Amino acid sequence: MTKATLFFAECQGHRLAYKAYIHPTSDLQPVIWIHGLTGSVNFWEAAMFPEIYRERSWYSISLPLHFPSTFNGTPTKDSLSETLLADLIDAVVRKIPTGKVSIVGYSVGAFAALNYAAKYPDRVASIVSVGGFLTGKAKGIEGIVQFLARGTRLRKAAFHLAYRTLQLHPLVFKLATFAYARKWRRLASYPQLDPTIRNIFPDVRRHDPEGQRIWFYYLLKMNLLDETCVIDCPVLVIAGDKDPIIPFEHQVKYASLLPNAETLVLPGVGHVAFGESPDQFREAVLKWFSKHAG
């Protein structure tokens, strides 16, 4: 198994963490993976496909304000923007010795990938968007958290309390994960669920709740619908038709607006496609790479 090296890229007060899993001999195009909110740079390691380890280099990029990524100062609502998010990812991509990369993003990570393709189209060969979106208004548990993240001091205090509760124990974090799924039994039997939580929870415990609140607040301002025409790289949209967080209708709609997108609909699946339908997810992603990341 390829061993990882942790690096950092700096931009506008952010120190963005990323891990590089360098294959010693492969000349295949490297792939970047970006986790979702409340995850960490260690999110993908336990669940990574053996074929990826065997065949190519890959990179895991942290979202800003997610430990071990850090920020110089106290985060505010101005600490994030679409342009900054793209520039941070580009600070990593510029360190990768290839002309282009393919990117797999989950949830907010998918937004980050699509946003990067809109701002730096010449750097992206293809994208796999898993439970992604072009506008950030969520529903379900994330919709409630967004409500707490904005507005009154009381709501902000409730957000901090809720996030501190999430950080108490890996079991609490695991139970919260099930609020994102619909095939709960399949997710519960997903072999990589517990190893992934073990990998990321030490980082989750060090996330700054205020930084997380800023993220949930900023979600409401995210909007790439006016940039769909410039996201012209091949995009695979993987969407569960029972997604309780990002409306399935939104995922299908934005896929139809992109110039070069395909949609894989997973029946009965919620927001955790790789855990609720792992075999179909793996097959689709590896087939996509063989076509677009050779």
From TrEMBL:
Q: Tell whether Oxidoreductase is among the UniProt keywords.
A: no
Molecular function terms, GO-annotated = hydrolase activity
The record, for InterPro entries, names:
AB_hydrolase_1 (IPR000073), AB_hydrolase_fold (IPR029058), AB_hydrolase_sf (IPR050266)
User: What Gene3D superfamilies does the record tag this protein with?
Assistant: alpha/beta hydrolase
Q: Where is the AB hydrolase-1 domain?
A: 30-278
What cellular component GO annotations does this protein have? membrane
Alphabetically sorted, this entry's keywords are: Hydrolase
Instruction: Output the PANTHER family linked to this UniProt entry.
Output: HYDROLASE, PUTATIVE (AFU_ORTHOLOGUE AFUA_2G14860)-RELATED, MONOACYLGLYCEROL LIPASE
What name is this protein filed under? Alpha/beta hydrolase
The record lists the lineage as: Bacteria, Pseudomonadati, Bacteroidota, Saprospiria, Saprospirales
